[in-house]
Amino acid sequence: MTPEPTAPRHSLIENAQGLTAGMVLTSLGVTFIGQAGLLTGQTAGIAFIIAYATGWGFGPVFFVVNLPFYYFAVRQMGWGFTLRTLGCVAGVSVLTAIAPGLVPLGAVPPLSAAILGGCVAGVGLLALFRHGASLGGVGIMAIYLQDRHGIRAGWVQMAVDLCVLVLAFAVVPPLSVLMSIAGAAVMNMILAFNHRRDRYVAI
């Protein structure tokens, strides 16, 4: 019988570089998506919907939308995971606010932005997951369900993302929503195929 793989432990420096890279990549992916007037799923998608409807900045809205989920994170995942997640959410909130000035993308074809943004954000989230963090909200529950019940995190997030993107029809043109769904599918497929407890999970 093949023994069940154990989760390798990362050092403080390894976690720091992994989480930093994850925040940067996720912020870049979100910037691609936002510059094209698209959105994604999870709490980021909710933040995009609120931002488009009100004109408020994505970063502050994203940070506030995630606040209610930290109680669940502390109870089910522990303080270490919760604090890392809080730091990553704050980091992405700041980075997405300043990214357009640092990386002026200009006019990005929407479908290209959806696919590229989904790929980059997916790899960024994968880095965060593998270093014991998430970007709050659905990510917290998805990791919990995968670690405790074996339900793939990517599939959980994809199901929730579809619900969020359906709500987006109220504030975003239908074609943009369809392209956003394609981007969300790419992002979550990266997570579903690569973030697997039987292959590699690290904290």
UniProtKB/TrEMBL annotation:
Domain of life: Bacteria
GO cellular component: plasma membrane
InterPro entries per the UniProt record, alphabetical: UPF0750_membrane (IPR051461), YitT (IPR003740)
Membrane topology: Multi-pass membrane protein
Positions of transmembrane segments: 12-34, 46-73, 85-105, 111-129, 150-171, 177-194
Alphabetical UniProt keywords: Cell membrane, Membrane, Plasmid, Transmembrane, Transmembrane helix
Subcellular location: Cell membrane
Keyword NADP in annotation: no
Classification via Pfam families: YitT_membrane
The protein's name: YitT family protein
